Amino acid sequence: MTAPCCLIVDDESAILSTLKIGLERMEIPLRCITATTMQQALEYLQEERIDICLTDMRLPDGDGMELIQYINQHHPQIPVAMITAYGNMDSAIAALKNGAFDFISKPVDLQHLRTVVSSALRLTVKRNADEPNMIGTSEPMQLLRRKIQKLARSQAPAYISGESGTGKELVARMIHAQGARADKAFVPVNCGAISRELMESEFFGHKKGSFTGAVADKLGLFQAAQGGTLFLDEIADLPLDMQVKLLRAIQEQHIRPVGAHKEITVDVRILSATHKDLARLVNQGKFRQDLFYRINVIEVTVPPLRERSEDIPLLVEHILARLAQNAVLPGKLQGGKIPEISPEALEMLKNYDFPGNVRELENILERAMTLCENSRIISDDLQLPSLGQTTSKLALSSQSSASLDPLLDNMQKETILQALRQTKWNKTHAAKLLGLTFSTLRYRLKKFNLEKSAEEEKD
Questions:
Q1: N or C: which end of the chain has fewer CB within 10 A?
Q2: What pLDDT sits at residue 422?
Q3: What is the distance between the alpha carbons of residues 27 and 144, in angstroms, rounded to a whole number?
């Protein structure tokens, strides 16, 4: 079997020699060829089968950015990493935006270099059939899949934007599963669900005895995601003081556990998401501009369900099959039978605006499965608000120049209260009916100040 080939492009012979020797002594066999000019690099790209390219920023007859752009256009299967001067973060970010797989700072750390090269070579592994995927064949979904494939080939921090319930975490899982870190951990964290007092310990870990209650050493989220991906959901909910510490961890790739004397090197790809408008929060002084700049190297927007209504029949089929498989509904769905949905009910779903997006569709179908008779869902089982009510709410939100957040929050509040009433205030059963974990339901009760209201209604 032929060893993979690495093309190293730099006009300094000493650096070329150091990189070549360091890479050819890796555990995996690797053949290295070197070029001192852009023209020579272009000739090698035509003559040789290149598996990875490392290029310096400045070349005698061009620059590394031009080479990155050329490779991405003519040889998109080749991952390319930029070698930049120490501290030149602007150049590194520009390289990532132009399609670079990763960047390496001078003076080159040999272990980091080998890690980058190993990760790049893993991109040739075939996709696993069990990896996560999004349902839909609409044009917005095809564009999203293409963007995900492109992001998966990069190590750049990516920011996933979109309304609540659109599937931002699923997009993050797809980016991870299709990338070079797929064999390492994917660690998701809801930033809004972590207690402010314990936030630093959760992210960076702590040493035994570092504070009251620290009875043993604890690994943080960065350490749990070592070599893999850390997904920071609802990153807009991080307090400003934690944003500073997160920025340093991302930039320096070092963390210090609470109570520790030494820093720890971490190798983690950061994916982040929120349904809020981060740019507006930056302007309002509620989110740090430097952190926004760092996590938003590449942005991907997940389309709302109302913009891809042609996908609803496929989504309904998929969701009903999954719900039927997991259903425990005596007298309703015996043996995991998938319920039928009437054409009228399906048409109602296609014409509904879905302010809560795919998550709301899942909840509507789960409720309909509970209410339906003879394993057939009809329009009445959906219990959708009328089109006029939905339109008027959206119009009111638009007139006030406000986001959909307050409307969605109110709908979530009412849905949670309805579930509690339906289950006679049994929180465990209500969480199951809503398709939530018990801890998530408790978090939302606290978030929407419903704990007291629920107890009062219960009494």
A1: N
A2: 81
A3: 37
pLDDT (average), residues 243-271 = 93
Q: Does position 401 have pLDDT exceeding 60, yes or no?
A: no
What tokens appear for 216 in the block? 């043993």
Q: Which amino acid is at 124?
A: T
Amino acid identity for residue 22 in this structure: G
> Are 179 and 158 spatial neighbours (Cβ–Cβ below 8 Å)?
no
Can you spell out the DSSP letters for 4-58? PEEEEE-S-HHHHHHHHHHHHTSSS--EEEEESSHHHHHHHHHHS--SEEEEESE
| Pair (291, 145) in one structural domain | yes
Q: How far apart are CA 91 and CA 108, in angstroms?
A: 16
Average of per-residue pLDDT across 97-124:
83
Same domain, 164 and 186: yes
At position 121, the amino acid (one-letter code) is: L
Residue with tokens 């044009």: 139
Q: Which of 32, 52, 182, 168 is nearest to 104 (CA)?
A: 52
Instruction: Assign 106 a pLDDT band (cuts: 50, 70, 90).
Output: confident
CA 279 – CA 249 distance, rounded (Å): 22
H-helix or E-strand spanning residue 177: helix 168-177
| Tokens at 234, concatenated | 């609802």
Question: Which tokens belong to 131?
Answer: 């990896």
Residues 6+ apart with CB under 8 A from 369: 320, 323, 324, 327, 329, 332, 333, 339, 377
Which CATH number fits the domain that encloses residue 236? 3.40.50.300
With respect to residue 391, please indicate whether it lies within any of the assigned structural domains.
no
| pLDDT recorded at residue 222 | 95
Contact between 298 and 159 under an 8 Å Cβ cutoff? The reply is yes
CB 165 within 8 A of CB 360: yes
Distance CA 436, CA 424 (A): 17
359 and 253, same structural domain? no
Is 50 exceeded by the pLDDT of residue 331?
no
Provide the residue type at 26 as one letter: M
As a whole number of angstroms, the distance between CA 325 and CA 336 comes to: 5
For residue 380, what is the enclosing H or E element?
Answer: helix 379-382
pLDDT tens, 262-295?
Answer: 999 999 999 999 999 999 999 999 999 999 999 9
Residues 195-222, mean pLDDT to the nearest whole number: 89
Residue 18 has pLDDT above 80, yes or no: yes
Answer whether residue 10 is part of any domain.
yes
